[in-house]
Design brief:
homodimer; alpha+beta; Arc Repressor Mutant, subunit A; three-stranded antiparallel beta sheet; 6 helices; 12% strand; disordered C terminus; DNA-binding; DNA-binding (chains A, B)
DNA sequence: CGCATTGTTCGACATCCATAGAACAATAAA
DNA sequence: TTTATTGTTCTATGGATGTCGAACAATGCG
């Protein structure tokens, strides 16, 4: 269907990483993605924005090197590039994910992902 | 001279923190600030932008809760709120600082690299 | 084949943001 | 007091960004 381009480890920049994570919608998506193991269909994670907007956000995350996207059938599967990002910037993504998990301001911000929303 | 308002720990948000750190000029400034201990005059850290621009960046850093600014005479002294930020989001700022220290794209003291190098 | 599902792309739009110069304020130094 | 230093604020500007709807593409299902 569609071929996605992913930056390799060398092309991942710290500011790019931080910028990609600085959006509430994106950070929440990444957080939900980290909670699951392995790949995850985009649609399986509830988001408060239109699908075209989410497509844009996923593009940002992908180009920042945070997620890997591949298509299978009609749906695209996203997975966190945790190991690669950690190898490049040790502790950063992990600390952000941990902080996000315990942050209340992300829950209502964008109204994302109550436990009941997760299928 | 001027009174600065600083957010308390409760008002520091993760996305605000990440956004403030996602700018190369700001991240470099914070990194230099971390290298020094205690307060530091703004002018003591070389920056590649005009002073009005730097004033804007320092405002962003201050409002994000990352730096504390106070004036003494004609100059304003900035200090990193490392302990407070770490108390709120453990590991995040520290990991970012460590990553920034070892990142080549940030090295030459603020010349905004990386954007043009990505093409 | 026709239709539903899933996501991308395009155009549009409003807003934010980094940048800089000019004018201003406050203090220090001569 | 006059000048220099330091930084803020105002205004402008060009570019990036988040958002959406509509149209499109690809696959799966009946």
């Amino acid at each position: 269907m569609k071929q996605y381009q992913h930056p390799n480890a060398d092309q991942i920049t710290l500011t790019g990483l931080l910028h990609a994570l600085s959006d509430p919608v994106r950070l929440n998506y990444v957080q939900c993605l980290a909670a699951k193991i392995g790949e995850c269909p985009c649609g399986a994670i509830p988001t408060p924005v239109a699908k075209s907007t989410m497509s844009h956000h996923l593009r940002v995350l992908r180009e920042a090197g945070i997620v890997r996207i591949r298509t299978e059938g009609t749906q695209s599967l996203t997975s966190l590039r945790l190991a690669e990002v950690e190898a490049k910037f040790p502790g950063v993504l992990q600390a952000v994910l941990k902080a996000a998990k315990e942050d209340e301001t992300l829950q209502d911000n964008g109204r994302v992902a109550s436990e009941s929303d997760l299928a």
